[in-house]
Amino acid sequence: MKQLHITETVLRDAQQSLMATRMPTSDFIDILDTMDKAGYYSVECWGGATFDSCLRYLHEDPWERLRTIRAHMKHTKLQMLLRGQNLLGYHHYSDDTVRRFVTAAVENGIDIIRIFDALNDMRNIRTAVDACLAAGAEAQGTICYTLSPIHDLALYVKLGKEIAAMGCQSLCIKDMAGIMSPKECYDLVSALKKEIDIPIFVHTHQTTGLGYMTYLKAAEAGADGIDTAISCMSAGTSQPTTESMVYALTQMGYDCGIEYKLLSAINDHFVPVQQKFMEKGVFDPYVLSVKADALRYQIPGGMLSNLVAQLKTMHAIDKLDEVLAETPRVRKDLGYPPLVTPLSQMVGTQATQNVLLGERYKNIGKEIKAYIRGEYGRAPGPIDPALEAKVLAGGEKIEGRYAETLAPEFPAAKEKLGKLARDELDVLSYIAFPQQAMDFFEKRELEKALVADYTIREVE
């Protein structure tokens, strides 16, 4: 039988896409041992927005979360998503910080790092790739798939060859918005297979309704693996369903390596978790229906669920359709960047401001300004001249790799934290998310003091 690997996303991308990454460790710790026996090639469990959400919303140490998963999953590869020079944040960090972070991720349990750059500017993944290889983990270089007048098959094959030449042991085609059609997927996987020898993994979402068909054509074209989500946390803005894909692919002659009977137990565990978040209104049923219009506006699952949550918070959910319509216009003005983190959030936020303020670019976000200046890398296409002139106002664009101009952040961060930092991992958390990490550390110290006081009182 032909082999096709399965990567389970319920612990990261599925819950990120469906409910803005609000799942605490306590909601999944009891099923980890069963998941470890299911035969997954890997489980995507860290990276993406999980790090930010742990600190910002869940009052969890993201490093401890990773170590907990590793302790329960000794036989399954643990996988994370890394935004290249952005790490898990929303701006570029120094090469020193990237190396330290990647090394720490591997030391704390990560086996595979899927590394991407939001602009497909491969200069911005090289440092992370080199650090990953040096640490002994698998570096999976990534092509962010999008549709535009400047993105075509030849460009993607060129990017794939760059990734292989960089030393990556595998490649992922990352279709974050679920817009890759079955034919486009078949053609791209086939073309890459002719040019490179490393395994190819395909990642998509069910947002547009194409995902299941796209995965079948990926398998036919010779893809080595696909990303799926356990059924109650699948479909919609999440990934296609693990059980359904394994069932269909097995009948077609593929060995997915899965102990199918264990999938029911895994799904049974997550059903009440899903129901809990639905009752809270965090898991909005809106994200489960097919959004064929996404073929036009190309908004990824995580971005869509976040937009819904943000507009609800601002009591402006009635503006959602206008924001969705404005998003591709902003993207065109910015030279057609792929809508993937952090560009998806940046473009979505700018589109929201344009709609809510009633005037386009009345207020330009600082991240958009940084993008136009070149801090995020090379824009895929020409930026609107009027917008560019408004932002630059006589200043010069950055032509080289912006990270090379950045001094190491670690020494100053370590000094600022002082005794609040227990170790190097705390310092890295602070560098990635200063305010959120500081709040977390201060609450941790307060809890420590309260426990100590209670212990003294008990002894007395």
UniProtKB/TrEMBL annotation:
Gene3D superfamilies: Aldolase class I. It is an enzyme of class 6 (ligase). Residues 4-264 form the Pyruvate carboxyltransferase domain. Keywords: Ligase, Pyruvate. One of its GO terms (cellular component) is cytoplasm. One of its GO terms (molecular function) is pyruvate carboxylase activity. It comes from the Bacteria. Its EC number is 6.4.1.1. CDD domains: DRE_TIM_PC_TC_5S (cd07937). InterPro entries: Aldolase_TIM, Carboxylase_cons_dom, PCB-like, PYR_CT. SUPFAM superfamilies: Aldolase, post-HMGL domain-like. This is Pyruvate carboxylase subunit B.
